[in-house]
């Protein structure tokens, strides 16, 4: 718990400094450029699973994006966990339980759709139980999810990814969306998002 609290303090410090410092990531940009050369646009969404705006963007844009672009291998979608609280962190851990990308996407869709049901509770244990109900619907069992929830490697990976995202991208709120190397700041409207996306194709 102390280690997690230190991470959270570090997050707050990075968020404060982000308004004064600009970081770049050559490796990330090189990766995106390589994808673009191969004819595939990379859409990155940095989000917290307890964030209502993230849930709205997923519902209004990402689900339609999957049908029209992702499934056709035109666009590559990358979810980047940026948990803002313990509930979001634990939901992210359950996402890591899934090894199949299709099931991961389905879990994201369900966890966002049912956000109001699981994201609040009398304590973190009750919240975890609610998250696990959604995991069970997609084929995970209690034993598997309990292991993911206490797995320190998964926790470190999620928290480190959040720190690296803060360093490498201008994240002041969630969701933060990038189409290749350009941040999307438009409305959560699929037609408007599609217009920006098509410029990269």
Helical segment count: 10
Count of spatially separate domains: 1
* Spans of at least 5 consecutive residues with low confidence: 11-37
Q: Order of strands across the biggest sheet?
A: 2-1-3-4
Count of DSSP E strands? 4
Q: Classify the beta-strand content into a percent band.
A: 5-15%
**For this structure, what is the CATH homologous superfamily?**
Glutaredoxin
Give the SSE string: HHEHEHHHHHHEEH
What is the radius of gyration computed over CA atoms, rounded to a whole number of angstroms?
Answer: 17 Å
Distance between the termini: 45 Å
Give the rounded overall mean pLDDT: 86
CATH domain class: Alpha Beta
**Could you say what the CATH architecture is?**
3-Layer(aba) Sandwich
Shape: globular
The percent range for helix content is 55-70%
Describe this structure in words.
The chain has 201 residues and is α+β, with helices and mostly antiparallel strands. The model is unreliable at 11-37 (pLDDT under 50). The chain has a single domain (2-198), classed as Glutaredoxin. It has helices at residues 2-17, 26-37, 52-70, 86-97, 101-113, 115-118, 124-137, 142-150, 152-168, 190-198; strands at 41-47, 75-81, 176-179, 182-184. 62% of the residues lie in helices and 10% in strands. It starts with a helix and ends with a helix. It has a four-stranded mixed beta sheet with strand order 2-1-3-4, with helices on both faces. Strand 3 and strand 4 (182-184) form a beta hairpin.
């Amino acid at each position: 718990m102390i280690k997690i609290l230190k991470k959270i303090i570090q997050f707050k410090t990075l968020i404060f400094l982000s308004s004064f410092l600009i970081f770049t990531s050559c490796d990330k940009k090189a990766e995106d450029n390589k994808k673009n050369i191969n004819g595939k646009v990379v859409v990155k969404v940095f989000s917290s699973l307890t964030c209502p705006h993230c849930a709205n963007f997923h519902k209004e844009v990402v689900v339609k994006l999957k049908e029209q672009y992702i499934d056709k291998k035109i666009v590559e979608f990358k979810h980047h966990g940026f948990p803002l609280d313990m509930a979001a962190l634990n939901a992210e851990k359950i996402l890591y339980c899934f090894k199949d990308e299709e099931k991961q996407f389905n879990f994201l869709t369900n966890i966002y759709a049912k956000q109001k049901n699981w994201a609040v509770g009398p304590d973190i244990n009750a919240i975890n139980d609610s998250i696990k109900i959604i995991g069970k619907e997609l084929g995970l069992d209690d034993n598997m999810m309990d292991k993911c929830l206490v797995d320190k490697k998964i926790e470190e990976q999620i928290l480190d990814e959040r720190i690296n995202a803060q360093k490498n991208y201008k994240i002041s709120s969630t969701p933060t969306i990038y189409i290749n190397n350009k941040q999307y700041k438009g409305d959560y409207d699929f037609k408007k998002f599609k217009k920006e996306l098509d410029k990269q194709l």
